[in-house]
Amino acid sequence: MSAEDLWLVVGLGNPGPDYAGNRHNVGQMVLDELAGRLSASFSSAPRVNARVATGRSTPGGPRFVLAKPNSFMNNSGGPTAALLSYYDALPSHLIVVHDELDIPFDTLRLKFGGGPGGHNGIRDIAAAAGTGDFTRVRVGIGRPPGRQSAADFVLRDFTSTERQVLPNILTDAADAVEKIATDGLTAAQQQFHSPPPA
């Protein structure tokens, strides 16, 4: 398997059942959607401090390594750097899926490189990997209402109204990951940054 064939997809979040439904864990929810498409299940990989699932979504298509770090969100860098090394993956073939406060709920934004934009998980990955040149699938969760703090907002579960829409968001984000791997970032941006048809 060549490095060009492999895509490492890291879904950010916090470990354990208490956090599983939090907005901050939407990146890991997207990986669950992707794992279902690969008919793969996550298993513990202690050498990289993560849970990992692997497979191809189509015969002969790109090979995906899906990884959920066992660390807390702000310490995602260590496991991600270990995954890059263990799988001999190119940073340019790293896709990090994460929540984004500055993007409206039910919106996706895809980008390559750039700063962390206030996201501590992204900052830690860039520091540990020695580069910020990787792709981010940013899943919008919107800003907290009223005077609620951002820290409290991201650690709360999606509302019942949001949960009605959430499956569509997870599907779109998983589609975006596959599109990036098969057709490139520009094609994925053209598809997922466009307003939906009326």
Question: Overview of this structure, please?
Answer:
- With 198 residues, the chain is of the alpha/beta class.
- It has one domain (3-192): Rossmann fold, CATH 3.40.50.1470.
- 35% of the residues lie in helices and 21% in strands.
- The protein has helices at 26-38, 77-86, 120-129, 150-154, 160-183, 185-192, and strands spanning 6-11, 43-45, 50-56, 63-69, 94-100, 108-112, 135-140.
- Helix 1 packs across helix 5 (160-183).
Helices and strands, with pairings:
Elements: E1 6-11, H1 26-38, E2 43-45, E3 50-56, E4 63-69, H2 77-86, E5 94-100, E6 108-112, H3 120-129, E7 135-140, H4 150-154, H5 160-183, H6 185-192
Parallel strand pairs: 1-4, 1-5, 5-7
Antiparallel strand pairs: 2-3, 3-4, 6-7
Helix pairs in contact: 1-5, 2-3, 5-6
Features:
alpha/beta; Rossmann fold; seven-stranded mixed beta sheet; 198 residues; 21% strand; 35% helix
The CATH H-level superfamily is Peptidyl-tRNA hydrolase
- Total domain count: 1
CATH architecture call:
3-Layer(aba) Sandwich
Q: Give the spatial strand order of the biggest sheet.
A: 2-3-4-1-5-7-6
Largest sheet: 7 strands, mixed
- Counting DSSP H or I runs of 4 or more residues, the number of helices is 6
The chain-level structural class is alpha/beta
Q: Termini, distance in Å?
A: 43 Å
Global shape: globular
> What is the ordering of alpha helices and beta strands?
EHEEEHEEHEHHH
| Low-pLDDT sequence parts | none
Strand content: 15-25%
What radius of gyration results from the CA coordinates? 16 Å
| Highest CATH level, the class | Alpha Beta
CATH topology: Rossmann fold
